[in-house]
Amino acid sequence: MTPAELCWTIYESPLGPLTLIGDGEDLRAVHFPGRSGPLDERDRNGPGFADAVAQLDEYFAGERREFTVSLRLEGTPFQQRVWTELRAIPYGSTCSYGDLAARIGRLDRIRAVGAAVGRVPVPIIVPCHRVIGADGSLTGYGGGLQRKQALLDLEASVSGGAPPPAVWAGRQLSLIA
Questions:
Q1: Backbone dihedral angles phi then psi of residue 44, each to the nearest 5 degrees
Q2: 128: annotated active-site residue
């Protein structure tokens, strides 16, 4: 698929506007503000985003714990393996890069696992935010550590049986300021 055949839309999330990029059937990328590069306005609001938007709405409302959006993720076989394992991290849980490397049987490639996590084309939907440092610290995130923490807070709250935090709705303003 050439870039000219891709379409995009903006999803207004509590984390700020997310750019969704797809091919009319599959979601191919989610970009945080300022990360999408130039896009052709003629390709805006193309077909195929209704399911992704509905599922993101449910996720941010605390009503969805995993995504079933049709995805087309382009990456190396190693990246694909890491991304598949990321989707197996339970909602409201975290794991370290070392844990993730162990899950795929490649403890010798922890840095490569970290690089693959950093290249997830559809963050949030493929929950790369659930990977943290071995000491429990937050580590890099394409959307910024404040967004990573916000996602972890949302999931911790909801998985504990509470509704999304009351401050969740106001997060967008603090995140994009």
A1: -75, 145
A2: yes
Domain extent for 126: 77-176
Q: What is the pLDDT of residue 177?
A: 42
In this predicted model, what pLDDT tens digit does every residue of 84-104 receive, in sequence order? 999 999 999 999 999 999 999
For the cut 50, the answer to whether the pLDDT of residue 137 exceeds it is yes
Q: How many residues does the chain have?
A: 177
**Cα–Cα separations (whole angstroms), residue 22 to 40, 47, 83, 174:** 13, 8, 18, 29
pLDDT at 77: 97
The reply to whether 89 and 138 lie within a common domain is: yes
- Give me the DSSP letters along 30-82: EE-TT-S----GGGBT-SS-HHHHHHHHHHHTT--SS----B-----HHHHHH
Q: Do 103 and 41 have their domain in common?
A: no
Catalytic residue among 7, 27, 128, 132: 128
Contacts of 126 (CB under 8 A, 6+ apart): 71, 73, 83, 86, 87, 120
Q: What is the pTM of this model?
A: 0.87
Residues 83 and 41 in one domain: no
How many folded domains does the chain comprise? 2
Same domain (yes/no): 137, 95: yes
